[in-house]
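We store chain and fold; example below:
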Amino acid sequence: MQTEIKLTVNQRRFVEEYCKDFNATQAAIRSGYSAKTAAVVGYENLRKPNISAAISARLDEFSLTAEELTKKTADIARGNLADYMTTKMVEFTPRVRKGLAELIAELEYELMLKEEFCAEKGYTEEAFDEFQAMLEPKRDQILAYQIELRRNPFATRLVSGETELVPHVEVDMQKLIADKERGIIKSFKYGKNGLEVELYSADAAMDRLMRVRGMYKDKLDITTKDQSLNEKVSPEEAQRLLQQLASGQYNLEG
């Protein structure tokens, strides 16, 4: 039988809130702690054995074991939009602009082939008349182009070009939806430019999830004039001090 972990009301609320987004500061605020001290409280709560154990237990209820977290962070870190794209070759007929002289030549060539076919086919007189009637629209089109071309030698038309095979990219929506439900994809929606997909930040997800399970522990030790600031500042404050040190703005003599 598992021993119940003793927590205060605020601590138990903190555990629940922290498991939502792994943000200690925001979890502290939502748990009722003061916004001014939330960063420090959140940092300290994560270092308390009973709270850390409660977080692990809560995650176990969500079926997020250490191995599962490792795999999930690896999936996020490897996340790539290309994983949701499939490419296949499809037929594409472009629109091209041609001069009327070229179009007339093409239509006349088509008529010549039809006439040869008709001659070799050996149609009866009735079938021959029907076949010739089918060709009249092409002859009319040639005549119309010839008249227009006399008036405008530079006349053109936008017509269908030669059909060709081109690569076409499609989104694997089933995989996208499945990974959204698994928490690998942050969001996706259809915007004015089409499908918009947002991935989680791989490094941020890796850092937060690994810290939850204590898979690595970092120790920050800032010392000024023989006085250690280790464990006396919040992570946010420590980061600020490090940035000042790196930029040369921190006065060690102060």
